[in-house]
Amino acid sequence: RKLASIGARLDSLKEALKFNEKQAQLLKLEEETLAPGFWENQDLASKVQREKSTIKRQIDRFSSVTRNFEDYSELLELIKNDDEATIELEKDISALDQEVSVIEMECLLS
Predict the structure, then answer these.
(1) Torsion angle in degrees (nearest 10) through CA of 66, 72, 75, 79
(2) What is the per-residue pLDDT across 2-53, written as a single tens digit (0 to 9) for each?
(3) Where does residue 16 rank: exposed (0-12), middle (13-18), buried (19+ CB within 10 A)?
(4) Burial 57-93 (b: 16+ CB within 10 A, else e)
(5) N or C: which end of the chain has fewer CB within 10 A?
């Protein structure tokens, strides 16, 4: 099924995006912003904030796609005997597939 393929692609993307490292990096940057005197150097503070924002967007986007994948997997099991609902879910799965493709392309280009 398409959903199984998406799951495998998400696993690969998680590695390629270095997702766990990005989460650790985000925590480090957040701690940095709490350090005394951090905001005194506006150039450094601005750079750190931009980096933090970029990493947070990447984490949030991947997390959202992963949550959708998990939700769709569970929902597919629940509605497997309902053809109409399955057709609607297949549309959502196709949209998810396209979103994963965009993330894959962005990952390749970065």
Answers:
(1) -170
(2) 999 999 999 999 999 999 999 999 999 999 999 999 999 999 999 999 999 9
(3) middle
(4) ebbeebeebbebbeebeebbeeeeeeeeeeeebeeeb
(5) C
